[in-house]
Amino acid sequence: KHDWLLPAHTKFPKGRTLAIVVLDGWGEQIPDQYNAIHVANTPTMDALKKGAPEHWRLIRAHGQAVGLPTDEDMGNSEVGHNALGAGRIFEQGAKLVDSALSTGKLFHGNGFRYIQECFAKGTLHFIGLLSDGGVHSRYDQLQALMKGCAANGARRIRLHVLTDGRDVLDETSFKFVEQLESDLRELRKHGVDALIASGGGRMYVTMDRYENDWNVVKRGWDAQVLGEAPHKFKSALEALTSLKAENPKFNDQYCPPFVIVDHGGKAVGPILDGDAVVTFNFRADRMIMLAKALEYADFNKFDRVRVPRIHYAGMLQYDGELKLPGKYLVSPPEIERTSGEYLAKNGLRTFACSETVKFGHVTFFWNGNRSGLFNDKLETYVEIQSDQGITFNEKPGMKALEIGRKAQDAILSGKYDQVRVNLPNGDMVGHTGDMKATVFGCEAADKAVKMILDAVKKVGGIYLVTADHGNAEDMVKRNPKTGQPLLDKDGNIQILTSHTCAPVPIAIGGPGLIPKVRFRTDLPHAGLANVAATMMNLLGFEAPADYEPSLVEVAN
Ligand code: 3PG
Ligand code: CO
Question: Catalytic site residues?
Fold first, then answer.
């Protein structure tokens, strides 16, 4: 049996309140006019950077440092918060799916056999994000999956695609749909009846998270399962072209739902009894709500109208605690013994808070994709309801100040050892590509940081401020050699809505920090996974031996 007790640290004392602030989407980049964080007035974060050099540094937040396949992979909140909370680097979904596909193991597992049972008589449906962003899904994986299913007996395939524009450039949906159509043509040549059946933009159709707005999932359900949508087209390319022509504000993220119909006007691919369904995203947060709708017999979030009897498998199991979905093609990373569980087992009290759209990041992802509390006597998780039905450039302040206030109250209450928050602005507003709004959002996040640092000062505590990945610090696509913004074919600067590969800052301080604490200088390649051990030290404990090393030491 595992020994949960963490030994007391010989140099770092116990008993200080530790505030942990994760600025979502806040990286370090060239300080120019396209860097929203640089343009923003952020006196608090600036002061941390200009303060003691031994208390501020950069750490890696992308690629292999967070368990992604390559160092070309930008960071994201799932892998970032997993690394922050777990203190170790686990091979993440993207990588696990890659190896399950390349070894062919995927096609021999229980999950695959389960969907295969429907191949002879039913249709195989794929639902997921059509993108090569590598955050939620990757197109080459979908390609390999379709091919492998056809080789293993699938005779009829229908695709329900969600357009991206958030992890990849806006309007790349056209290119992905063309690619998909060509791959489906190839399948048809080999006797597989393969078609796109429905579509919609990821932020408006299906991919909501943390139950912010069930209408998003319902729109998808109507199109994918019932074959109903306000827009009907003969092909997905026609859908995108017409919808864009109709609406000057058209973008991939918010594309309205559509279904593809045959010459008689009948939907070509509703989900019916006896069909198999695969959600091909590997990332959890934005698939869980759909997984519940597909899997739960008892379900009251919206009227499903018709609930087909299907064999459903996720690319991964999205929630280990809920065992959702029950069947999956690839086993998820087993992220166990997270820092949150250690703190609870050692009697430390934790407060965690964010607004809905990031709430699961500081709880579910932080705790290794695990729902719920470890110990309800010791932990309090507070969710502030996010604004619904808007794009976040409309209200770029989001709930930053409310989160700041909740954290302040928690710190001043003296009831908690660790107070942990996520401030979403840099990321959520950064994803809109709206520079002005993102600047405003970063200023709001900076104000919230100040509120938290002020409270830390009052109670003699310690703060640790960091970020999960880059986003707002780079609002344009750049020439990798010159750093200059790239232009599109009309001569306009290409707006970058996605995350980046930038490193992120980490700063420590507060009156509770004993003298001579400093960042070690022998860990130049440290990343987010080094933060958990750091935090345990600052709370007065040694970290578990297999955690990535702590960033701090006490000088002699
Ligand atoms: C999203 O899901 O909003 C983006 O694909 C990634 O953003 P996140 O990793 O910051 O949540
Ligand atoms: Co993001």
Answer: 77
Pair 50, 110 in one domain: no
Asked if residue 104 is part of any domain, the answer here is yes
Distance CA 66, CA 60 (A): 8
Q: Which atom of ligand 1 is nearest to the CA of 203?
A: 3
- With a 6 Å cutoff on the Cβ, whether 81 touches ligand 1 is no
Cα gap 279→515, rounded to integer Å: 52
Q: How far apart are the first and last CA of the chain?
A: 37
On whether residue 3 sits in a domain, the answer given is: no
- CATH code, 300: 3.40.1450.10
φ, ψ dihedrals at 146, nearest 5°: -60, -45
Distance from Cα 490 to the centre of ligand 1, integer Å = 29
Instruction: Determine the angle formed by the axes of helices 531-538 and 77-86, rounding to 10 degrees.
Output: 40
123 within ligand 1 shell (Cβ under 6 A): no
Side-chain half-sphere of 508: how many Cα atoms within 13 Å?
A: 25
Domains of the chain: total: 2
> Whole domain around residue 258: which residue ranges?
94-330
pLDDT 10s digit of each residue in the chain, 556 long?
A: 789 999 999 999 999 999 999 999 999 999 999 999 999 999 999 999 999 999 999 999 999 999 999 999 999 999 999 999 999 999 999 999 999 999 999 999 999 999 999 999 999 999 999 999 999 999 999 999 999 999 999 999 999 999 999 999 999 999 999 999 999 999 999 999 999 999 999 999 999 999 999 999 999 999 999 999 999 999 999 999 999 999 999 999 999 999 999 999 999 999 999 999 999 999 999 999 999 999 999 999 999 999 999 999 999 999 999 999 999 999 999 999 999 999 999 999 999 999 999 999 999 999 999 999 999 999 999 999 999 999 999 999 999 999 999 999 999 999 999 999 999 999 999 999 999 999 999 999 999 999 999 999 999 999 999 999 999 999 999 998 998 999 998 899 999 999 999 999 999 999 999 999 999 999 999 999 999 999 999 999 999 999 999 999 999 8
Is 7 part of any domain? no
Query: 76 in ligand 1 pocket by Cβ < 6 Å?
Result: yes
62 lines ligand 1 (CB under 6 A): no
Q: Report yes or no for ipTM above 0.85.
A: yes
Cα(166) to centroid of ligand 2, in Å? 8
Domain boundary (297, 330, 363) is at: 330
Atom from ligand 1 closest to the CA of residue 135 = 5
Ligand 1 pocket mutation, candidates 136, 138, 206, 431, criterion most atoms within 8 A of CB:
431
**Domain identity same for 166 and 279:** yes
- Of 29, 52, 54, 80, the closest CA to residue 527 belongs to 80
Whether residue 292 sits in one domain with residue 413: no
Of 477, 478, 121, whose CA–CA distance to 272 is shortest? 121
